[in-house]
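In the current project phase, the collection of sequences with tokenised folds has grown. A sample record is quoted in full directly below:
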Amino acid sequence: MRILVVCGAGASSTFVAQRVRHAAHDQGLDYSAFAGTEKSLPIDLDAADVVLVGPHLAHALERIERDAELRGTTVVLLPSDIFTDMDGTRTLALIRDAVGGPGGITPAAGGAPPT
């Protein structure tokens, strides 16, 4: 599964993406996570199965969901305290809850096969 973490400038999303990658690896999941910005979102969406939206972008959530829906991409608004999730396990749990299963989405549920 390909996870895009979006924030305003890309700094905080880089930390979240790195923590999610490590948590997924520790749990034996073949997930990749990468950081993006609100400006790069139209291009980055094409490479993502799930988009994690930083809490400070809540104002743009409706637009992001519309764009993601066209691609079959799941969108998750991160809670305001997400940056305290130092090991990424809570963020990973949010992703798994959003996609409906322990292993993540299947191609029939939307998005591309896990990479």
